[in-house]
What does this fold into?
Amino acid sequence: MKMHIERRADNQFYIYDFLAMLRIYYKTFVYLFLGLLLVALLGFKYSVPFIGKGRLLVNDSHNSSLQAFSTSYFGMTKSVVDGKKGNTQIGKQIEVLSTREFYRRLLEKIEIRGHSPTISIEEQEGFNYIKSQYLDQFLKDQESRQKLILKIDSWFQSKMESDYEIRLTFSTPNKSLSLFLVNSALELSSEFLRDREMAEMQQVENFISAQRLEVDKNIKKLTLEVAEFQTSQDNLITMTSREKMGEYLSDLMGRILETRLKIAENNKDIEFLKSGSDSDSIQMTRSSLYGSGGRIEFLNLENKRLSGRLDQLQMSVAKLGNHLKVLPVAVQILEDKKKKSELEYAKYKELSETLDKIEAQKLSIRDRFEVLEKARADNTLPQIDLSTLVFLAVVITFVVGLGVVYFRSVWNIQVNQTAEVSNFKVVDSSANSEVESVFS
It folds into this structure.
């Protein structure tokens, strides 16, 4: 008893004591490990999701010569292509892949691709799984379809892998299902994003085509107006330059002056002939066709002709003067019509060039999205593998088991030692200095 008390009073816990307790409580460790292992296996089978991953390549002017050419030809600057910070093109495309329209198209893609003979056996198993578990019961009405979309949304995730890549992942309770959904989403993503950008480009093309058609109508209208204005009887004079019109007016004035001088000369000749000899007067009275009488008659007739010519020349001068008054207005109208026509031609040319650039941009859109890596059976893995779960079971077993051993053994020993030490009564004696132990 004394040695036992001395050993407990020693308050030491050696390694062989620990090993001895392990031998005593080894069944506790075994049962605890088996229980945790069972929980890990059940969790691995029913709770641990399988992750399917795929990568979508987004080509742009930095990693594709075709995209660089189309971007340069289309005239898009780097700021337009890349967007502002925090709102890049890939960021926008990732947001598009989270829309309800994408999930609706994904359901259609699942149905079409599931019946395709080109998919693998593993993917066919995934389609059969989602068809039996979800499609048959969730596609009956709109509300059920919405529930299935929310379910797919909880499985699906898209994020930026790099500056040129988008990673698509599906986390589902079935390996074949994850494999099938990832590859279906990859194929749909490239088609969906391409169709979306193509639709935007088609809207631009339709707008520019409508503008070009309107400009073409304006050109035809202005051309007809200019032709009618130039061929108008009142505006024919406007086709001549101001200098030529001045020369023509000077010529008319000169001819008027010449006509007036000629008339004056004839009048003088007539007066001279009338004041001639009497014999000439007698001859003139006899016949106005011969001699001075005939000459006077001829001069009178010529003066009448010259007077008519003078009237015509004066009317031409007056008419030309009126045209000269309206000439600046007419010329300005004609110049305005020509300038409008030139502007419409320039606009038509620019719109035609833009349509050509849009065709080049469409070519680049067809090659912009590319499936870089599909999911495979060997890289579709559980979120936590079985070996990790077993290791965690071992670690938890040791931690919990040692805690149990401590509380059942070491803690009890310390409590007993404390209780026994409290039962010691030490009596000081100067005679023999004995220690008596009194037990209660």
User: Anything to note?
Assistant: The beta strands are 50-58, 156-160, 165-172, 369-373, 381-382.
